[in-house]
Amino acid sequence: MNFRGMVRAPSVPALGLLALLSFLSSEPVQAGKVLVMPVDGSHWLSMKILVEELSLRGHEMVVLVPETSFLIRASANYTTKSFRVPYTIAELNANLDHIKKTAFEKPPQMTDIFVNLGNLMQFTNMQVKGCEGLLYDESLMKSLRETGFDVMLTDPFLPCGTILADSFSLPAIYFLRGIPCRLDESAAQCPSPPSFVPRFFTGYSDKMTFPQRARNTLMTIFEMFLCRKLFASADELASRYLQKDTTYKELLGHAAVWLLRYDFTFELPKPQMPNMVHIGGINCAKRGPLTKELEEFANGSGEHGFVVFTLGSMVSQLPEAKAREFFEAFRQIPQRVLWRYTGPVPENAPKNVKLMKWLPQNDLLGHPKVKAFITHGGSHGIYEGICNGVPMVMLPLFGDQGDNAQRLVARGVAEALSIFDVTAEKLLVALRKVLNDKSYKEKMSELSAIHRDRPIEPLDLAVFWTEFVMRHKGADHLRSAAHELNWIQYHSLDVIGFLILILVTVIFVIVKSCMFCFRKCFRKNQKKKKE
Amino acid sequence: MNFRGMVRAPSVPALGLLALLSFLSSEPVQAGKVLVMPVDGSHWLSMKILVEELSLRGHEMVVLVPETSFLIRASANYTTKSFRVPYTIAELNANLDHIKKTAFEKPPQMTDIFVNLGNLMQFTNMQVKGCEGLLYDESLMKSLRETGFDVMLTDPFLPCGTILADSFSLPAIYFLRGIPCRLDESAAQCPSPPSFVPRFFTGYSDKMTFPQRARNTLMTIFEMFLCRKLFASADELASRYLQKDTTYKELLGHAAVWLLRYDFTFELPKPQMPNMVHIGGINCAKRGPLTKELEEFANGSGEHGFVVFTLGSMVSQLPEAKAREFFEAFRQIPQRVLWRYTGPVPENAPKNVKLMKWLPQNDLLGHPKVKAFITHGGSHGIYEGICNGVPMVMLPLFGDQGDNAQRLVARGVAEALSIFDVTAEKLLVALRKVLNDKSYKEKMSELSAIHRDRPIEPLDLAVFWTEFVMRHKGADHLRSAAHELNWIQYHSLDVIGFLILILVTVIFVIVKSCMFCFRKCFRKNQKKKKE
């Protein structure tokens, strides 16, 4: 850019400063009642930020919590209502352990998609059973119904909130990164051409070769069957409980607003619908100070700085042999390492490594001395990396993490490794690249600057749309008429068939007429010849 | 909603108040250089608001103006650079008069689309010739090139700005309501399924019957030819001037950001691309006080209030007989009427009508005593009606106005009449409906409330994205990979063909194999029988 110089001009928000001040002093905000049906684990950690913010703004927040919950706890900021589920925390853990085992102990291969699917189906079915515990808890349901909520805020990764919203006739706000097999996009009637929108588990970018596009198209067809299978138990519960013939996808289609936890610094540009709002990076909104102990560790890392290493909220251990590889690699770098790890520690563990049960990930990534982030590639960690401009080494475990890693590697801000065959050597190569090759940090700083350059903060946007839906009892003006079309109508297959039929008929009639005329003429000529 | 009461809570913008205040006091805004290529007429009136705002924020604004301009004038807020065009204002007027005549004197019919197209083509070709005057003005081009602009802000209704942006290698920001035959959507690679996105000139809503969907699909095919014909002169000029084989559509595809002058209180919900930003209602941003004369006229209208009547910036006269019908209708209503009209006035003109050469439309529509708005249905007037919650009587003349009117009639906030056969009686029926049936006002107030309930003002949003593009030299992260696909690839027709080929081959092989086996068995049986 050719700048004439630095001129002080009012910022965009400043344009409305006077209006804002008068707004603050005069206009009261109406407090509503929000029913919240979260999904446990890291999903809850980002939704909690919105729940607490809405509570701060005077809204009554009621959060439904299964008895066996990993991370959803009571708080002074919101009311929790607990419901019984037909499984124990041990059973949940066993389910999770099985998923982890798949990642750690099997080489990545083509059939992973079926393994992933099987694991996911088992998890979803378990959670749908849990949902039954809530829906058929009559006294709890009665008390909820009588509360008279204004809106349902839910994570549609699991179907319970959606069924509840329909049962209570509440407008629903969906808070999500995405639903397996793109059920969110198809429910929202959002076009998603397979020619430039890669499907999950393919690891493709938006620039595909012909074979990749062909496989992506096949994956699209496969997804349709996948969805049906994956959410069969949800469809069954919805139809049974709501006493109408419906599917989870159909219920999802009634969404008022989709609050999507991504933006296009991470996700690839693709078509959107008017009721989709991007709140990627909402989990970076709140950054706290570090404890004295962590502050000292970080500051004491000197010029080399330090590395943060976590594998997400659900994975704090590694098979012993694998853990040893990590310790071995960390021994050979001059950086300090902060690692969330609760497994066995070898006797000669390197001194530059500090192990912790839990890490304040976002607070640490915001520290000026942080140099790299080793992560499994969950969307939360990724955004904390992007917000703070920290290049990454990624070890995707399951779900969307493989695709996530691919996206960041393609942007030149991360290196990816397979957790199955990671060795100290491989880790060192990747880590040294990210630490020493300046391009990773530069590209990440650029990406971070673009991500943070936005007209309104994601948390404010999420609050705005939740309140909008309460104020207007939905967001009907954003609802596409495509919801009234079936699959054939949506893609105009009936119209195309009809037009082809007309075209063929017209061609047929013309050809027949020509042939008729030709024969007539030909016969006449023959007759003449004979005569 | 079930409200617990009225609770004072901080507003969304207040959340960032401290951050904002510190931003104001510390962070300087870099001033850039913006080259502006506007389109004359009402198009300029809304773009001017953004140009002036950017100027206020310290940016250097250079506006390119053809010598024969209706409404683009010099200003202290921006520099204008004039260029010669090979037509006079009289020729421009003649062109416009021809368009008006078509509307006033011919009954609306199926073939209007060809008439509209012919008029539009004549206008576009004239303006493309005008553009040549600019592009081949070597000294002006040299001085512009040397200025070193950061961004091109242009209205792509006409192609000159786009060609210039490519020539100067500037990122382009498009400011528009839409381009004829949806060239904007196809250039942006935005999916636009004909099953629920009605085409221009059809007058359909987004809920179509089968025959309507079939016609809409045919219109889609027709549009492709239309586009080529309509912008043939632009394609030719672009290829010749830029010395490469290109089209206007291809150049448009390089857009950094599309600032779209609509939102979904007016437009029907449809798919969008990530670099599309909605700034509908930007023209309502600035409301000034009324002159003493107008204030007295408005306030003196008593309990019945007054009606505002304009047919847009380009039409201030009517054929005499038609004007008489309007005077006759106005005589019979108790409201006062403010009419932008410069034609002959009958001797016995009713006293409740005040004629003016120019109306401060948005200022008047914001007056508490305004009861209805008679308009031709241009998008600017429509938004001023929506912002201020004023129900309308619509008299579409040409272009998108027929479709615009249909959208508002469907929402129950307007009545539409044909200007060709309008009579005092018809006008009275429509006007009395809108004035006396409370539902029009109620629905319009609701629509207005939804339109004005937004997290950020459209003008601020337009300023933000212009500055974003300057800061980051474009908005590449929002650019879809679909731009690298041709039409066949985009719709996966090659992949579908390939998959069908494989399917057919597999079926063929299976059938042949079965037949082979069957024959073998059959023959064996026959042989055995013979033996």
TrEMBL record, chains A, B:
> What is the uppermost EC class here?
transferase
Instruction: Offer a single GO CC term for the protein.
Output: endoplasmic reticulum membrane
Signal sequence residues = 1-31
Kindly indicate whether the keyword Repressor belongs to this entry: no
User: Mainly resides where?
Assistant: endoplasmic reticulum
Q: What keywords are assigned to this protein? A: Endoplasmic reticulum, Glycoprotein, Glycosyltransferase, Membrane, Signal, Transferase, Transmembrane, Transmembrane helix
Q: Which EC number(s) does the record attach to this protein?
A: 2.4.1.17
Task: Show the PROSITE patterns listed in the entry.
Answer: UDPGT (PS00375)
The membrane spanning regions, by residue number, are 495-518
Question: Does the record's keyword annotation contain Mitochondrion?
Answer: no
Which Pfam family is one of this chain's hits? UDPGT
The membrane topology term of the UniProt record is: Single-pass membrane protein
GO MF terms listed in the record are:
glucuronosyltransferase activity
Source domain of life is: Eukaryota
Compartments where found: Endoplasmic reticulum membrane; Membrane
Q: Which reaction does it catalyse?
A: glucuronate acceptor + UDP-alpha-D-glucuronate = acceptor beta-D-glucuronoside + UDP + H(+)
Q: What family does the Swiss-Prot or TrEMBL record give for this protein? A: Belongs to the UDP-glycosyltransferase family.
Name this protein carries in UniProt: UDP-glucuronosyltransferase
Q: What is the lineage of its organism?
A: Eukaryota, Metazoa, Chordata, Craniata, Vertebrata
